[in-house]
Design brief:
mainly beta, 37% strand, two-stranded antiparallel ribbon, 1 helix, single chain
């Protein structure tokens, strides 16, 4: 399994921020996957390839989480969604990280899949 932070686009960029190279991301988008998205975030894409914009609350205690309105997709086929990928743009952009859903969701054409929670935390923290 290769879920986690993108080494090139997120982990290295954050670490380079420590040494004075700026890192910023103006928006965050989430894509759906039926299996592990892989190291580049492009494997096992859902039939619904539209990435939905996600809004995260300000970081606290080394973690971020979705805020405000849940993120939702209109499904176009029957499949089981088991993973997500997080990107810097609605198309193209930089792959930031991926995660396995706590529970896979089987959907059918016409269903709406809603992601109510999503977060990222960095640990261990010193204080």
């Amino acid at each position: 399994m290769t879920v986690g932070l993108s080494t090139t686009n997120l982990a290295n960029a954050m670490l380079n921020g420590i040494r004075g190279t700026s890192f910023s991301n103006s928006a965050t988008y989430i894509g759906l996957h039926t299996g592990d998205p892989g190291a580049s975030g492009t494997s096992n894409q859902s039939a619904v390839t539209v990435r939905q914009q996600a809004t995260f609350a300000a970081a606290s205690s080394g973690a971020i989480a979705l805020s405000a309105t849940p993120t939702a997709w209109n499904m176009t086929t029957s499949e089981t969604v088991a993973y997500i990928s997080v990107w810097s743009a609605s198309t193209g952009g930089s792959f930031l990280w991926s995660a396995q859903l706590s529970v896979s969701k089987t959907v059918a054409n016409g269903d709406t899949l809603t992601l109510n929670t999503c977060g990222l935390s960095l640990a261990p923290l010193a204080a």
